[in-house]
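To whoever is on call:

I kicked off a structure prediction for a single chain this morning and the downstream step that reads the tokens threw a length-mismatch warning. I double-checked the sequence; it's 146 residues and nothing unusual in it as far as I can see. Pasting both halves so you can look.
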Amino acid sequence: MKLSRIILSVSIIILIILGFTAWKLKHTTERLKTSSSAAISYEKAGMHEEAADLYCRMLERDPDNPGIYVNLAAIQVKKGNFEKAAELCERAVALDPKNATAHNNLAVAYYTLEKYDLAIEHCDLAVKYGYKVKPELIKLLQPYRE
């Protein structure tokens, strides 16, 4: 009888822990969605620093989210910081090698940085993974393919 009470108590504790973990995961996911919407609103309003700050806080909670790195990189591009944009997109690709947007953004950043071989590589990967690369970028890279 004593053993069955212990098993029952442990089972209840496990259920409570699992329930709390599921609630926390759902709550965190909802907070990230809300934060992402706010960051995008900041970007659209031209409030890049505020958006970047929010994305950085989101990364503290979800450091393995490639989308956050891609969005931060887009802000760096708008600021003309292509080295930092490339670094952030490389992190996104490390987390999600098939992230077509990250590959496209890397192609643009590397082209701007005159790293044409890398720009071509990432342009091709962006296309491979389904990104509709702008024809202008493809034309700009054409002379370096030969």
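Update from on-call: the warning came from a stale cache, not from the record. Cleared it. Sanity check on the structure: Residues 98 and 145 are 22 Å apart (CA to CA).
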